[in-house]
Here is the input.
Amino acid sequence: MRLHAPTQFNLAGKKYSFSDSGRCRSETKNLFSVLVRAMAICLTAGAATGVGAQTVTPTGTQFSLTPYIWLPTINSKINYPVSSLPNGGSGGPSGQAPDGSVDSEIGPNDYLSKLNFALMLNGEVRHGPWSATFDYIGVKATGLGSMVHSFKPLGLPNIPVSNSVNTSTTSTLKTTLWTLTGGYELIGNDRMRLDGFAGARFGNLNSTVDWNLSAQITLPNRDRVFARQGSASTSRNFADGIVGVRGSYRLGEQWSIPYYVDVGGGASQTTWQAMLGASYRFSWGDVIVAYRHLSMRNDENSALTQFELSGPLVGATFRF
Here is the structure.
């Protein structure tokens, strides 16, 4: 891959930023305040068991399977080396930090027509107060349209890139995410359920950005440039431990409010996820509409420092 300065990309609605040192840097939101709010919602609303949970504790062993469609906006930041800089490709002038970063944002309108593969599935097994769940997300999309909005050399302000300079920029995204948990019912009655759980989230993230501009972008002092054409890519495997709560609050015979919150991390990564929605019960199962957010962040010297998915979800839970 070859980049010539830190930049920011908007890929089909997602932002990618490259720092001036060759690795991806990310700006984090207030994780703990968000989690506290989400936990408060969960503990107030009640207990749930997965994406489409019911509220009455079942007898014997119960199974459920929930295929769903999640249309998130995807935000990520990728670090990259800039070969034209002094010592480019090995950490920039200092030899320590990334040369640059690309910040991109990809929305549903950008990737729906470009999907090569997509599968999203949630499953649960319950026996009395005990439960085990899995959640799988597999997505591959190629030829995603994007745009370079700016590039940011390390330690310097953003350099804007006019829309008129952009000709064609595309990206490829491939993601496989697994979440496995084991839980125990803490509260269970006719009105609400609350499960505590622990588990792991693991998988692989791959992202590639190829850009084409009508002109080369140069800093005022001309010591660094962002080339007219270039490419940046990253691949990351990860495994994080998580803990959390899931539950639902029953509004009536058919309506309920399901929710889910987890938080965790690995060696250098933090992750959290939250979901809040509405569920309607039929004789065969439930239909759920919700909003879901998933965040994974790494240290600034990692190739992929930020990966976030946030958007609406629709699913159907089948019980047997």
Q: What stands out?
A: Residues 8-319 form a domain with the Lipocalin fold (CATH 2.40.128.90). The chain has one domain: 8-319. The mean pLDDT is 75. The first strand starts at residue 8 and ends at 11.
